[in-house]
Task: inverse folding
């Protein structure tokens, strides 16, 4: 195969040495920082079809009695960045974090309150010297007041923490896009595998039906009744295999439609042949080259790094809290505790409202707070330090998982490629065996003066069974290879939008031409994981 399967497109943005990805706008006020292009090249070639691919059964576009939904891989990958709910959830979390950042940036600004105050007292009251007497009095005020209550440490460090959280959420959105791309690709190739197996099973049924007809025409001297029953039994089994393959196609289609949020009742009918193989990553690159790339560009690491920086800012915040004051500004122009600060004020005794005029009274306080004689502050510092250690440990766990992802995906891709080579040989020989056995079932030879068939029907049945298994091995190996390629692409941290750009995804009829684009300028604010 290296031929039709290697019609496996060069997805242009995957010409990673020469292209970068632009930032993707999520909403006003927040953007996903683009990741630089990975230093890994894609491979693609278009050679003449092999004997295997030229003899494959005709692949149907849909099944009878089903409503087909034509789709190709570029379209599926486009929808991977648009419809999946995981991306929407991550985007909303980014919007919330961005709103918190904006709020933290203005935390030192006062809240202005407007209002009306009416105060009335009847009965006994005590003056400042301690005398108690009866009086009736009232006051009225229309005005406004500034209301400021904030800790200086919060005003300084809360924006720093919120900024790091926004960075983490930006990386989470990119990670969600990459995860969505992988989920769509895997679901798409599940459909392709099921469709190929269905076509192979249908071809096995056709060959078994032909065998049954040939056996039926032979005399009982050459073919005992038991042989005819054997052929009919195999035909019934082959037809069940077709039904099982159709079920796998339908369930795989439902899963793809669920991820892409398409019509769940439609049957996904890929427009590419299921024996098309993609080569996104050069598998000859050693792990020592691939793992550092993944540990540099995976957005999950950027997210953990930002959360670690936020934890460090919280530690500094708690250490400075008892040293820096809290600021309180409030109005004190109305009774009894004071709410409004400035406005139009008047009052008098016995309900008389007179002496109207302007009044302005402000209460400003600077308060240093030592919580629980300092033990509370110390406990908060230790809590923030523990949260920082937790963030670092989470980063290390993620690094280990990413390295394992690269190793596993590469091993899967290499194993699938090797299996595919053997599956080609298996399928080629299986086709030849079936065809020669079918021809020999009508040919006779003399053995001891009696005519016998060159190949008995049971040998043809065994050959068809081997052919059906060869079809499943062949399409399974191709699908495994394609899935592993996308897993490796995902494990290396390449931004999903590189694969879903319309202009960069060519049609699947011919291999893409090399890109002449220049490298994008590095202006992404990326900080390597600590």
Result:
């Amino acid at each position: 195969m290296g031929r039709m399967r290697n019609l496996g497109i060069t997805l242009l943005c995957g010409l990673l040495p020469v292209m970068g990805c632009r930032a993707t706008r999520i909403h006003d006020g927040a953007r996903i920082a683009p990741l630089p292009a990975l230093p890994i090249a894609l491979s693609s070639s278009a050679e003449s079809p092999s004997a295997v691919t030229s003899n494959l059964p005709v692949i149907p576009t849909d099944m009878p009695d089903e409503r087909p939904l034509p789709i190709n891989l570029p379209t599926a990958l486009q929808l991977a960045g648009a419809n999946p709910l995981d991306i929407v959830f991550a985007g909303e979390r980014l919007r919330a974090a961005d709103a918190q950042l904006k709020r933290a940036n203005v935390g030192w600004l006062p809240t202005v309150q407007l209002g009306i105050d009416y105060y009335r007292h009847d009965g006994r009251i005590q003056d400042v010297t301690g005398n108690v007497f009866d009086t009736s009095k009232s006051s009225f005020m229309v005005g406004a007041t500034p209301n400021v209550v904030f800790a200086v440490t919060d005003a300084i460090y809360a924006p720093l923490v919120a900024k790091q959280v926004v960075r983490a959420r930006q990386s989470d959105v990119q990670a969600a896009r990459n995860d969505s791309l992988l989920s769509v690709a895997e679901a798409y190739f599940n459909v392709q595998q099921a469709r190929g197996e269905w076509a192979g099973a249908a071809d096995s049924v056709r060959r078994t039906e032909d065998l049954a007809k040939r056996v039926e025409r032979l005399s009982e001297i050459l073919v005992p009744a038991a042989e005819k029953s054997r052929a009919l039994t195999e035909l019934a089994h082959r037809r069940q295999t077709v039904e099982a393959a159709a079920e796998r196609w339908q369930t795989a289609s439902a899963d793809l439609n669920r991820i892409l949020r398409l019509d769940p009742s439609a049957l996904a009918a890929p427009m590419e042949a299921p024996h098309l193989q993609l080569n996104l990553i050069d598998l000859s690159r050693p792990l020592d080259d691939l793992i550092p790339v993944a540990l540099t560009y995976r957005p999950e690491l950027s997210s953990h790094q930002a959360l670690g920086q936020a934890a460090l800012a919280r530690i500094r915040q708690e250490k400075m809290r008892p040293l820096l004051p809290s600021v309180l500004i409030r109005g004190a122009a109305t009774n009894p505790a004071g709410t409004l600060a400035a406005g139009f004020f008047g009052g008098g005794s016995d309900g008389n409202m007179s002496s109207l005029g302007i009044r302005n009274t402000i209460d400003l306080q600077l308060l240093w707070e030592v919580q629980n004689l300092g033990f509370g502050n110390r406990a908060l510092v230790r809590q923030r330090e523990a949260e920082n250690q937790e963030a670092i440990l989470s980063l290390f766990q993620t690094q280990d998982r990413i390295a394992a992802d690269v190793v596993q995906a590469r091993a899967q891709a290499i194993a699938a490629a090797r299996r595919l080579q053997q599956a080609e040989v298996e399928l080629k020989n299986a086709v030849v065996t079936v065809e020669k056995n079918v021809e020999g079932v009508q040919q006779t030879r003399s053995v001891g003066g009696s005519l016998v068939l060159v190949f008995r029907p049971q040998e043809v049945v065994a050959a068809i069974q081997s052919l059906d298994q060869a079809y499943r091995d062949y399409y399974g190996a191709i699908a495994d290879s394609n899935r592993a390629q996308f897993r490796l692409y995902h494990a290396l941290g390449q931004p999903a939008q590189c694969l879903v750009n319309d202009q960069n995804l060519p049609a699947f009829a011919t291999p893409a031409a090399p890109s002449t684009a220049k490298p994008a300028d590095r202006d992404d604010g990326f900080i390597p994981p600590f």
